[in-house]
Amino acid sequence: MAALIGAAAVFALTRPGDVFNSDVEFREEPTQTSVPTPAAQKPGRKGRKGKKNPLAGFVWPTHGYSLDRRRFLQTKPSVRPPFKREWSWSATVLLEFAPIIVGDRLFIMDNAGVVTALNRKTGKRVWKRDMGYLAASSPAYGNGKIFVTVLERAKGVRAGRVAALRARDGKVEWSRDLRSRTESSPLFTEGHIYFGAEDGTVYSMRGRGGAVEWSFRAAGAVKGGPALANGRLYFGSYGGHVYAISRRTGRQIWHTGTSGANLGLSAGNFYSSPSVAYGRVYIGNTDGNMYSFSAESGRLAWRRGTGSYVYASPAVAQVRGGKPTVYFGSYDGTFYALDARSGATRWAHKDGGNISGAATVVGDIVYYSNRGNGDTQGMWARTGKRAFHSSRGAYNPVVSDGETIYLTGYSSVAAFVPRTVAQERRAAERRKAAAKKKREARKKRRAERKKRRAKKRLERRG
After folding, report:
1. Contact, 338 vs 324, CB < 8 A?
2. Which of 10-24, 34-48, 150-164 is modeled with the greatest confidence?
3. CA angle 355-320-395, nearest 5°?
4. Read out DSSP for 63-122?
5. Per residue in 394-410, pLDDT tens?
6. Helix, strand or coil for residue 255?
7. What was the pLDDT predicted at 259?
8. Straight-line distance from the first to the last Cα atom of the chain, in angstroms, rounded to the nearest whole number
């Protein structure tokens, strides 16, 4: 099947409505994706007892890791299964979003609006702060502050807030009530935070003091977090709209729709947070499609259907020895790996249940959680073969500091470290010794039973 829209050739992929516009620009990158790495925090002054600054070191500063929200962290090949669990922490309530990492701290906000700081090495709570009644987003970090968006600031109040907390102790530095609810995970860069709200407003606020620099009004609710690339903020809204606006001024650069109605499809809603890579914007829609738009112009590059809602935010990566790929799950219970240029299938894994959270690529493995099955899978990013499984999981799966995997379950966070070859060998030896001990115990019990039976036969004869 082929048709023409303007001057672009459009080819069907696998489902009616799937399209590929071959002339939309695709920007090649190095053979291994180069991901902007947030600068490590400086050690700073030591405390009175000579302790190092706990905020110094590696930073995973926002939902999606990088400002363009690719959800990809390149690591050493050794950061892979088999894993050993180091610690586990329970929140007792739903954790829809994963934590962020700042030095020796994890910062997470639960669905009851409580922000908690954990010691990254032990899982022990450092501080917690109640910021509202309902929340569904990840914090962001910058300039010693944790920035949070709250869906409902009090019971019965259908409006949220945005706030900044001091990272070292959780003290609220400023808080601003909003006229609408917000579950948009914020971005922080160059002294400003950016996020959207259900009334369609996208805000730019100063990280220091919270003053509004500018606001932009979209045609529908902005649920996802905006992504930033080349000075532009990209985001989708309910009603099937996608926008690119200037980060500095909030001026609209382009705006496009799903065009679903032209093919007899619903326009759908963009709940997904976008990923920006290869000169493209990748974003899922509740009309059942994953979309790829030109980051420069907003032209549709491809649309790929799944058969059910795509709430999930995609991960975009080119892993070692692989090709540019978009990873995401659907409510049809399938996890997809698609060609980032064309939308064609590289591999797909039918898992059942439903997948609504974002995928994350750490090293050579892509992780996703299945809300319906209540677990987390790790798949080899190139082949789709399973590398890891955990019975924990619901929405957004893992973050990593390049050494440890921090896995978010329905209401818990657990730290997993790779077993070294020596550790795995010792574990295998322990398993072998335990199995041998069990066999010897069974053999001994059989011998004792045989001895007792022989004794009883002698007694009967006597």
Report:
1. no
2. 150-164
3. 15
4. TTSSTT---EE---TTS-SSEEEEEEEE-SS---S--EEETTEEEEE-TTSEEEEEETTT
5. 999 999 999 999 999 99
6. strand
7. 62
8. 94
